[in-house]
Amino acid sequence: MEAPLAERIRPQQLEDYISQEHLVGPQGSLTQQIKSGFIPSLIFWGPPGTGKTTLAEIIAKTSGRPFYQLSAIHAGVKDVREVIEKAKQSGGLFSTKNPILFIDEIHRFNKSQQDSLLAAVEKGWVTLIGATTENPSFEVVPALLSRCQVYTLKAFTKEDLSKILTRAIETDPFLSSKKIIIQEEEALFRLSGGDGRKLLNLFELIVNAFNEETIVITNEKVMQLAQKNTVLYDKTGEQHYDIISAFIKSIRGSDPDAAVYWLARMIEGGEDLKFIARRLIISASEDVGLANPTALIMANNTFQAVSVIGYPESRILLSQCAIYLATSAKSNASYLAIGKAQQVVKQTGDLPVPIHLRNAPTKLMKELGYGEDYKYAHDYPGNFVDQQYLPNEIVDIKLYEPGENARENEIKKFIFNRWKK
Q: What is the model's pLDDT at position 41?
């Protein structure tokens, strides 16, 4: 069976690689490393379909190294160990041609699976290249991350996507044999969500649907044909962002039915459950906040439980948390407060700390009066004493405005009774 278009025209050398100039352009941070063949272990972090796998293959080919590839979706510790054993036989600690082990979607490996890579990377049996669409700071264990350099791939621009289509038409034998006129590109770009691989495979699907000698691509024709062939949820494309947005906005809007519906759409589409759980933690603080502080505990516990339990049981935990947040009182006061505070800092710069609040660890600092007039709150009735805590220049500023809900009405009374202002 013939390979998909994206695979048929995959670049084989750096000169054919499109975009990521900051990495592989003439002054790119990876360019010289690739040409010299001295490659450290790497993590490629970027949106789907931006050339992470292609770049790994080019590195291996250019440096003349054996290339082993695993997908974290299907591989386990046993598979990793088998590949490492093969790599040890074809390379070695002092070899300049250490094999490259490429692991796609490395963020899907759990801690034990990632730990199984440590010795091989540390001892130089393999040069690891991992690809991830998720922030490696959260998804790659610190011990492994510290042994790798992280390179960020940028999303394709419209110009990049146009170049990819042009290259496909000019270099693929099947497409170059046809007369193809791209009259409009917007629908192709929108449906592909900036994913180069998805763009090419969608483009091939559209071209194959034409029987005419001259193929004219228009937005209307693309939408007509794509609607018959696209799936309901694409976890790597535009809907990934649209549906998580609808999910969070449904929680913010206190609609548990809509929240659970969008949750089900993501689960049925194979979305990463930890991605959903992380967004629930953010919503618990941004949208519920001090109206119900328990919401953050619930969301954080949900994330921890999902990380341990996995699918399918995790869907129940996510549903419980989503419904809890949707039906909770809401407040974005904490979210607004930190935004205001950051703006004040940007406008006023590094204002000096009031001298009575400063620490005085040395004799000189004590002689200069550091901390001299500080009043220890616990020495006063109700564990409170009226004293200044803000810099003089902004002493009257108000950043936190309690929301209108039962919990924050109590906070409002607390603040008023203490400060009378």
A: 93
In sequence order, the 6+-apart residues with CB closer than 8 A to the CB of 319 are 260, 263
Predicted confidence (pLDDT) per residue in 120-139, tens digit: 999 888 999 999 988 898 88
**Residues 6 or more apart whose Cβ sits within 8 Å of residue 378:** none
- Pick the closest to residue 64 from 3, 127, 2 (CA basis): 127
Of the listed ranges 62-71, 142-151, 293-302, the least confidently predicted one is 62-71
Peptide bond just before 312 cis, omega within 30 deg:
yes
Phi, psi of 242 (to 5 degrees): -65, -45
Q: Per-residue pLDDT averaged across 396-411, rounded?
A: 90
Cβ-based neighbours of 264, under 8 Å, separated by 6 or more: none
Residue 166: which pLDDT band, with cuts at 50, 70 and 90?
A: very high
Burial class of 203 by CB neighbour count within 10 A (0 to 12, 13 to 18, 19+): buried
